[in-house]
Amino acid sequence: MPTKIEKDRLTGKETTGHEWDGIKELNTPLPKWWLYVFYACIIWSIGYMVLYPAIPLGTTYTKGLLGWSSREQVRDQIADARERQGEFLIGIQESSLEEIRADSTLFTFAQRGGAVAFADNCAACHGAAGQGNVGGFPVLADDDWIWGGSLDSIHHTIVHGVRWEDDPDTRFNMMPAYGDGLLSEEEIAQVTDYVLSLSGRAPEGADLAPGEEIFAIQCAACHGEMGEGVTDLGGPNLSDAIWLYGSERNEIMAQIVNPQHGVMPAFQARLEGETLKMLSIYVHALGGGQ
User: Which of 58-67, 170-179, 234-243, 254-263 has the lowest mean pLDDT?
Assistant: First the structure.
């Protein structure tokens, strides 16, 4: 005998026969439009699997009848972009840094290319806008340059790095650890006070004469007679109140006792020649250069 169909007394709709705690489930079918969309999606997905790469097969996958590949598409787009950029890239390759800087078209192209290279390779340490970071990552957006701020100096630093062991032409100089017996604690305190005085921050009532004498003997060769810095040796300017490892008296003293030395990679093995030039142009403009 056919099962008796039960209908809900209030709505008049059929029930499924399921009941929980006196609550009966209505047998409400899905809207027809929803079912049509669902069926259309199934048909579309089957067509997609047939035409495009879709099903993984171990180390390979089904290629699809159209033979389309997103990797190939990206490769073609990159090749097309390089072809359009070719004229400018050749100009960058064949021109000196000064010539690029003087050519408004090449300069604009180098600025944009350099900005991309900077974001990819430099921003993690020097900040997205070249504002530097704590821990010895120099600011590139000011006029203070440890190894020189000319186009050629910046280019050399980027190409060969700083204290990068794998590059024989890397920027290299080391500050002695004066706490290892080169100076006494009293002498370190005296030269610290003198260093502070170079930027107008001498402790009140400090006798600067002993520290000045120590500075002339121990420090002036790398930092200059007046602490103005010697970029050829990577000796930072001590008179401009710009500090790499902290400006407080105890931080300056700690740097004299046991100095920290930063390391920067040599990018000539990572970036192409024209990219290195564009990056140099960008960094030079970022801080006003020299």
Answer: 58-67
pTM as predicted:
0.73
d(CA 139, CA 133): 7
Structure tokens given for 71:
């990797």
Q: How far is residue 290's CA from residue 279's CA, in Å, rounded to a whole number?
A: 16
- Six token digits for residue 164: 């990068």
Fold matches, 72-170+264-286 and 178-257: yes
What count of other Cβ atoms lies within 10 Å of the Cβ of residue 183?
A: 19
Q: pLDDT (tens digit, 9 = 90+) per residue, 41-71?
A: 999 999 999 999 888 888 888 888 998 888 8
Q: Where are the domains positioned within the chain?
A: 72-170+264-286, 178-257
Q: What is residue 1's predicted lDDT score, i.e. its pLDDT?
A: 44
Contact in structure between 155 and 276 (CB atoms under 8 Å): yes
SS3 107: helix
Considering the domain delimited by 178-257, tell me its CATH architecture.
Orthogonal Bundle (1.10)
Q: Are 195 and 252 in contact (CB under 8 A)?
A: yes
CATH superfamily of 72-170+264-286: Cytochrome c-like domain (1.10.760.10)
CA-based diameter of the chain, in Å?
117
Whose tokens are 């709505």? That residue is 11
